[in-house]
Amino acid sequence: MEKTKKIYGRYRSPGDRIFDFCNVVFMILLVIVTLYPFVNSMAVSLNDAKDSIKGGIYLWPRVFTWDNYEYVFREATIFHATLISILRTVIGTVVTVFCSAMVAYTISRPEFVLRKFVTVAFVLTMYFNGGLIPNFLLIRELGMLNSFWVYVIPGIIGVFNLIIIRSFIEGLPEGILESARIDGSGEFTTFMKIVLPLSVPVLATVALFTGVWQWNSWFDVFLYNSSTVELSTLQYELMKILQNSNASMSSSGSDAFARGMNADANVVTPTSVRATMTIVASLPIMLVYPFLQKYFVQGMTLGGVKG
């Protein structure tokens, strides 16, 4: 009975208590350091831009206003760009995860004689790249300029994601796959009905990685679709808004800006616009992450069992 009480912590040494106290303090500080930048950006985005110049905005707005969000969302293209960002995130994530899982299953099979060669060939692309101009010429020759599919096809196989999924699949019980083959299932049927359902944790992890990358990407829009307004994304539009805000601030000069500070008209600053953009861009990902958190933890743990 005494041993059981000690196991469950009813009798703890002073060293254990000190360790627990230090651990709790450290975790609280870590949470504060992690959350403060986002909370501060939220406070600045909801604070009057003229008042924010004075400084002293930390955890909540001093002069509450929606003017910064009205400035960002008054652009006519912002809502269509948001739709394009959602489409590229959903379609790109689904296609990338499915195709990466298929290739990962192929190179995980010991009977595939070229699996080592294919794996090395994929890994080499992580260290060597053709460069920006060859990539642009390749996209142009493939006819994907000013096309939605330039957001999906070039990143259809992610090598890092491929390695994670392959490591996870290699850790699955071989007996389950052999039982499926004995029952007459082909490789594709085994992959669809056995491997994919068992790989949900690692697939959710890869989906989160891919979704965040797709949502935040804007440089490919600048390179390949900058002349096509219908294919512009939210991140690219927000980047243009920030550039316009910086340009307006620079061209107006200090005297003009001082007059604007005393005017009744609403003004914004690059700092307020940047904080507002941070909230607008990160909020959708933060809303999705809680639903994938448990799969994310499982996938990162189980996917790293084998290298």
Secondary structure: helix percent? over 70%
Strand content: under 5%
Counted up, domains total: 1
Per DSSP, the total helix count is 14
| Rounded average pLDDT | 82
The helix-strand sequence is HHHHHHHHHHHHHH
The assembly state of the depicted protein chains is single chain
Termini, distance in Å? 44 Å
Total strand segments: 0
In the CATH scheme, the class would be Mainly Alpha
CATH architectural group: Orthogonal Bundle
**Major sheet summary line:** none
CATH topology: MetI-like fold
Q: What features would you describe in this structure?
A:
Keywords: Cell membrane, Membrane, Transmembrane, Transmembrane helix, Transport. By secondary structure, this protein is mainly alpha-helical. It has a single domain, classed as MetI-like (MetI-like fold), CATH 1.10.3720. Helix 5 runs antiparallel to helix 13. The radius of gyration is 26 Å and the shape is flat. 24% of the residues are buried.
